[in-house]
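Worked problem 6 (solution included).
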Amino acid sequence: MSIDAPALHERLREAHGALSHQRITGLFDTDSDRHKRYQCRSNGLVVDFSKHLLNDHVWQLLVELASVHALPEAFAALVAGHSVNTSERRPALHTLLRGTAAEQHPEHTAAIRDTLSGMATLVTGIHTGAETGWTDQAFTDVVNLGIGGSDLGPRFICDALSTPEAPLRAHFVANIDPEDLDRTVGTLDPSRTLFVMCSKSFTTEETLSNADRAKAWLQAAGLPPHRLGQHFIAVTTQVNRAQQWGIPAERCFPIWDWVGGRYSLWSAMGLIIPLALGWSAFEGLLRGARTLDHHTLTTEPSKNAPMMMALLEFWQTRYLNANTHAVLPYAQTLQHLPDFLQQLTMESNGKRVSTTGEPLTSDSAPVLWGSAGTTGQHSYYQLLHQGTRSFSADIILPLISGRGDLTARRGLAAHALAQSRALMVGRSPEAARQIGQSRGFNEQECHQFEIPGNHSHSLIVMDAVSPECLGGLIAAYEHKTYFLAVLLGINAFDQWGVELGKEIATEIQPLLETGATVSAIDPATRQAALAWHEANMT
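Solution. The predicted structure is:
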């Protein structure tokens, strides 16, 4: 980091102080063209930052911050394969999976090409009926067995792009709770159901548990043991383990240690996407992400969509005290986007120390949450408009989001734009007084009708819910997440906090199974564990 960084941060604090009593509407009153300057365009996306509490001075300071923290160089290093995952001392080359800077990585490019070719061959075989189940009937359904990054991204994409004409119906099972698998397969035909096991280590407890139960379900329906491999595909680094479990080598696809789970939907971890949607959809997804990668590599900071998304979130979190971020997509097909972004953002940047082990002096990732469209308006928007918490938000509006009734879709768009405006303008004390008095309330009681507004947020307009646009949107959020990590001096590619709970779960298992005393467990946990044991094992 440049020695000028502290001085720049002080200037940002001063700029916030100067803006703290201004309103975004007032900034529009004096600068009606601000939406033309405070926006970035790429790949069918327009990211409009004009409804943030900022002016030209703040914008320029944020652009300088990109230079001080060497964000362009940091992204070039990621793409080039430097060891940006510092705690595990390896690169994070998810951009290479979609062909970005392939010429820089001949040692990996051939393996990726071979894997994609193998995936395409298998997908074609399944779709044409050349590859069938044990009764020689074509598959109708495919179930993804994975958790975290092996589930959330593919689940989002398959739901977003699903159509009645899709080659296979896609289903997802992640939870170790047996109800997840049982309810999913309960209406399926075992002889026409295909499973994709996604486990990098082939030791993931949830995935293996569900796979064992899926195997039992198939066998109970008559699956001959020697034809098990027709109903399973594995994505793993441990082909030997997959083969021992019963999956033939030709149905095992690799994943590499330089691909993190939450960045892996572009790899064979996303195999359910072409199986369910067709190979062209998967290619479009890769193409859209690759275009956004190029935009990020070649575009100056002030026009660089993911870079400015990160800088504005940094501004919101550090200087405007917004420690929560809502993602509000106005399309039912994007309903799983907040779920996917929760892992991407909070698993990546939910850290408390820097890469050198120094405690952070401010919040890292904001808490991310949200839901689709008008559903949220009847749930938590009341808190957004009249609550006391600071937050930032992305309102996402696809121009084309489906084939449904035009009148209803027009109403949906109206709500998206109305909520964006409402977050900004609110309702003034004067307007609240008029409403209250018209209903017979006194001066003091009229305050309940006030809506402060002045909530900074971004409006993201997408051309369509298409493979290319979704690829670009996801890549933009990936790169935003990385840029935030660079700004904060943390590692976006490890997740040591996830491991602790897994370790303790292993310690608790004997207590649940036998009721045996486990000295390392506190009395409260022991009491609950014994209650479960008594309810289920006795």
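Discussion: The radius of gyration is 25 Å.
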